[in-house]
Design brief:
This protein is mostly beta strands. 11% of the residues lie in helices and 42% in strands. Strands 1, 4, 5, 6, 9, 10 and 11 form a 7-stranded antiparallel beta sheet that branches.
């Protein structure tokens, strides 16, 4: 091998690993994934202790709250009402683990169903003639493992079609603002997915 050919071979041998190394160190491109769990909450300015309401102070365990924690499925082009959520069947109102409602105060839903403070699970009964919210006292279960024997009650939900289809199942706890003077906190519980938006009222039960 002449000197020119030998020099070319050596140069290629040295440069090739360096080129591969440069490719391996190329900047990574950020990737995004849709959320799988979500939550919504309303914070109150104190807590009930031994039957009395105490405003928030450093000596207490923080503010009271009403909160919903849920798995968040996504439409991805699928039909929701009558499809992913079949009519005539109870649906988990979310994904994976059952949707949990936790309230630090006695809470009224839909103007009729009163829940003592504690933790509950929520389900939806999808019907073409109207949707229902089902409250269950069983907790910690998978969303498909509802035991009807633990149902606390059902309330009808108002149904409308949103202006834009909702890609991700979403729940809101919306307080009325400004609050009505002299009355306990109240607001709207809203759920939406696809072309379905469901609402009912919530209210803190207070003497």
């Amino acid at each position: 091998m002449n000197r020119m050919a030998l020099a070319t071979t050596l140069a290629f041998t040295v440069l090739l690993p360096a080129g591969l190394h440069a490719q391996q160190q190329a900047p990574a491109i950020p990737q995004a994934a849709a959320s799988t769990r979500a939550s919504t909450e309303v914070l109150l300015n104190g807590r009930i202790i031994v039957g009395r309401w105490f405003p928030t102070s450093p000596a207490l365990a923080g503010p009271g709250r009403i909160a919903i924690d849920y798995g968040q499925p996504h439409a991805r082009g699928r039909t929701i009402a009558g499809g992913v959520v079949p009519y005539g069947e109870v649906w988990r109102a979310g994904a994976n683990l059952a949707t949990h409602l936790t309230t630090d105060v006695e809470l009224e839903l839909g103007g009729s169903l009163v829940l003592p403070r504690g933790t509950y699970t929520l389900f939806l009964n999808a019907r073409e003639e109207g949707w229902e919210l089902i409250v269950n006292r069983q907790t910690g279960q998978w969303g498909t493992d509802r035991d009807p024997a633990h149902d606390v009650g059902r309330i009808p939900l108002s149904l409308r079609t949103p202006h834009e289809p909702m890609e991700s199942f979403t729940i809101w706890l919306i307080p009325n603002s400004p609050a009505t003077e002299g009355q306990a906190p109240s607001g709207v519980l809203k759920m939406a997915w696809g072309e379905v938006e469901l609402t009912t009222e919530w209210r803190v039960v207070w003497p």
